[in-house]
Amino acid sequence: MHNISLCYRCDTPVEPLVSKQWFIAVDKKFGKAKKSLKQLSLDVVKNGKIEILPRRFEKTYFHWMENLHDWCISRQIWFGHQIPVWYCVGNEKEGGACKLECKKPFVQVEAPKKCPHCGSKNLQQDPDTLDTWFSSGLWTFSTLGWPKKTKDLEYFHPTSVLETGYDILFFWIARMILMTTYALDEIPFKYVYLHGLVRTREGKKMSKSDPATCIDPLDMIAKYGADALRLSMVIGATPGNDIRLYEEKIAGFRNFVNKIWNATRFALLAQNELLIKKRAISNRALSIKKPHQIKPRTLADKWILTRTQQIIKEVTDDIEQFRFSDAGMKIYDFTWGEYCAWYLEIAKGESQNLGVLNYVLETILALLHPFVPYVTETLWEKLGKKNLLISHSWPTVQKKFIFPKETAAMSVVINTVTAIRNLRHESKIEPAKKIHAIFVSKKWQKLLEEKREPIMRLAKLGELEILSQAPHVHPALTHYTDDGVEIFIPLAGLIDIDAEQKRLTNEKEQLEQYAASLQTKLANEHFTSRAPKEIVETERVKLKTAKGKLSAITLQIKNLEK
């Protein structure tokens, strides 16, 4: 019994055949420095001229290159660059005789017109083609006009960053380094950024040789848009680590793209009040013709301007350090969780500041453009911009738009509203139900009074009392924020107290049993000493979370006691 090699395409048996091949001598020293191709390729990475990110893959690169043997560059296939080798077929037809040297192949860049030994024009080129990686290894300079010294070659070479999968570190990246250091005596690029492989939800590698594992990008683009697909492959993808891609993930980012569109539409609608009244709005009819001055008037204006400067700095730093997923996630959170969820909602009640509204929106579009180029370019045009967004300068931090005190004050408002929302959720109070709330804070009493309208609107309050001393309210939900605001929500007539007490008691008992099991598990030295550190730490986090929930439920039960 023996294994038979089969063609992966048609399952036909493949019979080994000994044949002549062409090789590149990677250990042969040449030039003034008397270094081999292998040494040149190793030196440019060891001396830091080329950085491989993440750095752990440098070890893989060195292992491959230090153990590199002469590189077989000939392939017996139909398509590809034909090997520049010629043979003298014979000179008898021309009345002459071949020489002994004619039996030797001759190699040269340009196709020869005749045999250099006997003068015969009866020549034949070697039928083999160059290895695919040999041809693609020329990419960084052959596409720029080399061997001619073109302006493109002078301007663009060496390139800045090469981004590709870690699985072709040796096959392609190493060959480009080898080819360029030899042919141009310079590096092909300064940085190599290696992304991971795309896998299915179950962790299988997506491969064209196994179509069942693949998601057709054209289908996803038709269904959810190219921008949503791009985001799904960037956010969550860290250098050198594989990502899992599935349709639900892409659909989730489609919702974010829609959010950007709606945020822009809100800004456009705010400037077309006349058209709104006439109900004559269409997407094409809306555009901002003239820029507005950026003059912050409200607390929310100063807060969103400050946060915008912070996000510009953080995203710029992340991109420069190749933390693309972090950058994308920060823009995502800022756009959805701060600009849309807070600033735009507050702006619906207060006098809208179109200058601030548009400035922040334009900054978001510019920061998002590398991630979602299609919708941002379209919205940029709708905002009345004449030049393309891709040619627009990258946002920079404006120190005049940083307001630390106002930002801290706005955080008090946000944390207070968030606390009320959490109390409502924990006690199963209907989200749309108007409730009564009492705030107690000497430090922030004036601020809370000034922001009464947006607080009541965003927290769905029907009545709001702002006091300097705590009242006696029972039963009531209570919460003390980190900013020092004590919140009371009277429960009389709001919920069925007996039913709520029963529900909380049952939940408390289940949590106590769960926490006890985790405590027993972590007290077992056999588990903590043998289990991986990551698993032990995960169990500790679970225990800490369970204890936190227990404390909250215990307080809720106490507040409901008559």
Q: Describe it for me?
A:
With 562 residues, the protein is an alpha/beta fold. The chain is built from 20 helices and 16 strands. Strands 14-13-16-15 form a four-stranded mixed sheet. Strands 2-10-9 form a three-stranded parallel sheet, covered by helices on one side. A three-stranded antiparallel sheet has the order 6-5-7, with no helix packed on it. β15 and β16 form a beta hairpin. α8 crosses α9 and α12 packs antiparallel against α13. The longest helix is centred in the last third of the chain and has 28 residues. About 3% of the residues have low confidence.
**Distance, first to last CA:** 84 Å
Radius of gyration over C-alpha positions, nearest whole angstrom? 34 Å
Question: How many beta-strand segments?
Answer: 16
Helix content: 40-55%
Largest sheet: 4 strands, mixed
Which secondary-structure class do the elements indicate? Answer: alpha/beta
- From the spread of the alpha carbons, the general shape counts as elongated
Could you list the spans in which at least 5 consecutive residues all have pLDDT below 50? Answer: 274-289
* Total DSSP helices: 20
